[in-house]
Amino acid sequence: MTTTPKMPENEAVYTKKGDFVVFNQLALKIEMDAVSNEAYYAWLDDMAATVGDLVPGAQIAEKENARVTPPLNTAIYYDTEDFRILRTGALLRTSCNKITHAFCAFKAAQDEDHVRKDHRYVFDGEEKRTIQGAPDSPEAVAVVKRLLARTDIEHPGRHLEENYGIPPQELFPALKLDDYRYTFFVWLDKRDALRCSIDRAFVSNLRLPEAEREVKPVSEVELAIYPRIDPEVAKDPRVVDLIKILSENLCARFDTRVTADIKYQRSAKALGMGGR
User: Fold this and answer.
1) By three-state DSSP, how is residue 274 classified?
2) Residue 238 phi, psi (nearest 5)
3) Rounded-to-integer distance, Cα 218 and Cα 53, Å
4) In whole angstroms, what is the distance from residue 32 CA to residue 269 CA?
5) pTM greater than the 0.85 cutoff
6) Which of 63, 101, 208, 252 is most buried by a 10 A CB count?
């Protein structure tokens, strides 16, 4: 795998067809377990002051109160009894926020250019409310299993089977991840280019009885292309330059590293799951 990220070629970054979304996500992930929020935000303030000199036209922006009221997103990772998905670097999970969204996603393992193809089925109506209310409840799991059993529509389970030969009917919840996402954006000439965040996650093993579950912290920074980036901006070489410069600066500042492991793999390792 190359160390230099590269924009996806010959495919749109983001496409939507009905309830189904495909997102070709270019991103780098940096391990941040040993770095405090205070130290991280000192770095971000330094970068905000200098990024325009490093990449002409670049500007870092944050929403009001982003540093004090991060949204909580909850993911439930599904896998087979013997954790066949975990070993691949891919994932199948639900993600929800009690206010904004609920979807089921299959993400393939990243390719040599650090791009991951993300296939999402977006829930609405009663199914959305069920998952938002308690994403690891029997009712929410039943919603997901009904989706994964369908053969009449495009959904994440079908892409999992096509890519890895893993039948979606064999999946059930493996791991819960509560993620507090502190987001910032990077603009190029006042247009969206990157959506980045430090993710402070708390993970637990859903394969254990509830009374035996421990909660472990896992943290990382994700430097990622903005999902609905304008196609013209996506072709701008400064987008990749931004990801490279931010990642190199962050790693040098905190003596950390870019990781190829996804949150599911890092969380499983923290919990001692699946032989990790």
Assistant:
1) coil
2) -65, -20
3) 33
4) 15
5) yes
6) 101
